[in-house]
Design brief:
By secondary structure, the chain is an alpha+beta fold. It folds into two domains: about 5-105, Ubiquitin-like (UB roll), CATH 3.10.20.30; about 110-250, Orthogonal Bundle (Fumarate Reductase Iron-sulfur Protein, Chain B, domain 2). Helix content is about 30%, strand content about 15%. Helix 5 packs across helix 8. The protein is elongated. It starts with a strand and ends in a 10-residue tail after the last helix. Bound molecules: iron/sulfur cluster (SF4) and FE2/S2 (inorganic) cluster. Iron/sulfur cluster (SF4) binds near residues 175, 215 and 217.
Length: about 250
Amino acid sequence: MVEKWNITVKFYRQKQGEKPHDQEIKMDVNPDENVIDLVERAWALHDRTLVFAHACHHSTCGACGMRVNEREKLACITPVRSVVANGGTLKVAPLRNFPVISDLVVDMGELYRRMDLVGHQPVDSDREEAIQPEFRPAGPAEPNEDFMRLSDCIECGLCMSACPVFSSTPDYLGPAVLAGAHQAGLEKNPLLFKLIDSATGVWRCHSAFECTAVCPSNVDPGWRIMELRRKVIGDRVKTLFNPRKPAEVGK
Ligand code: SF4
Ligand code: FES
């Protein structure tokens, strides 16, 4: 028999030029549904003016990023029972640190522009170590491709929303962008090296690792930022003993 819960869902509502407010809707839910199912049902049965984004429904497109009870999540893979108890209240709000376009949809244009700037490649690699542990087959057997979850950034923006530094310093390139720079490979672009070794680059990070905690794709931006720092320091040491021309920086 399907379990039935009754919960209150608080939807963040804001249209352009208006002040934000919460809209409360009591809903009967199956706790095994995902949060996106509730959002869709609220739109279909309660209020057709609710604006939200979604597409793939399986954590691939990155469109459904939002804050669920103050935590960044992909709504399409967040089971209701993982974020609220029967009779409780679930708050659904847009990602932080991006301008709200309407209700749960934010403008992530700045993220996409910065990702282009650092030459981010949407698909990175199929290295075995890039597979999330829970999807990695046990034992030495060949990885089963059906269960692979790779370290490909889906540009969902969750890490940018969770980052406490990006929140107070909008010029900071941000975890997704620095992870994109790392994935793109410094050796391919010496100018990129200068960008990440700047006041708005890797040194601005406070190592909070909130980005890694919320990333749904095993990109591990926090680790990648630390790796970039290591490369920058390595380059400085090399340059100290073997000065090079500016065009060679980062090689
Ligand atoms: S690094 Fe992770 S959390 Fe950040 S945009 Fe890419 S997939 Fe999303
Ligand atoms: S709908 Fe595509 S990631 Fe959630």
